[in-house]
Amino acid sequence: MPLHIILQSDVSATSLNITSLEKRAERLLRLLCLKRKDLSIVLMNDADMASFNKKYRNRKGPTNVLSFPARDNEAALPFVIPGNELGDILISVETAAREAEQAGKSRDERITELIIHGLLHLLGQDHERSEKEALSMWEQEQKLLNRLNQTGRNTMAHLAINVDHVATIREARGTSEPDPVLAAGICELAGASGIVVHLREDRRHIQDRDLQLLRQTVKTKLNLEMAAAKEMIAIALATKPDMITLVPEKRQELTTEGGLDVARNHKKIARAIEKMRKAGIPVSLFIDPEAKQIKAAGEVGATFVELHTGRYCDAATEDARDREFNLIAESAAAAAATGLRVNAGHGLDYRNTPRVAALETIEELSIGHAVISRAVFVGLDQAVREMLALIRPPFPER
User: Where are the chain's structural domains?
Assistant: First the structure.
């Protein structure tokens, strides 16, 4: 598919996820049956857009998007335009960012809307001709956006189940049941792609023996959550899980509160990562969706980041939830653009997970409490399968 995304001026210095934009634009061309057409999308700043707006529309200042169909001036050209040439879409990234903030959505989401708008212009539609055409064009934009979101990713996000709270129930009575090792096996058979356990320093749920048995029995991927403490590092090096996730840990907390402050603990975390690297164990850092933490994660040598979704899950209003989701979306894109692989987790349940799972840049979701709670009523196997059904794309691409 001959799609070209061109960066002008200082746009290349921004945190745009070009790979993600390319995938969305390619899906749009497929949805419009234009996959054999040549399309160029030019991303620029306000100053450059203002010059185009003045030259071609005789209007001052920047606009958000301009479209130039390839065949508009064909008769005046000294050459024949190839039949597959669709045209060019120019987008001001700065204007798109302002509009996104005003509308409470992510910049990438707004740029996607502008690409859709520009494509419809290239196909001959014009909202300035009449109110009727403006309404028709807007309705088509909404339909295309909905279809694009429905086919948001061509592979499903992986689901890793945290079985800590199976051990929590066991430890409440000091018995041997229920067994988190058996629970992990049931989760894998139900389709989970990984098992997560947090071996805390106070051993409030998962015990050392659980970890040893899980290392021997888990067939998918074992992810050990742990503090960057000397004792835990030694246990991880001896156990050799498939990966570790470094998390902050406080004695009095009910569950992990907030992300790891990588920026303030740079040297300590870098040393832990280097030890794991020598042992061949990939490291993920559980961080808040913040630019400085993403930057620090890349600097210390992490392979993954797991974005803390707690504020999104706990948001009290729809507006607050949208703001937190947009922050996760932009942080995931920024992390992926720097070469980090991206996971997400904390507080995700059967209501709020699908939206996060649809983000292309997120590879895996770590979910525990919601699935174990659901299992009380429907059984663990069914609870895992229900969550998997939610994170699979409803209309997979072919």
Answer: 3-150, 158-391
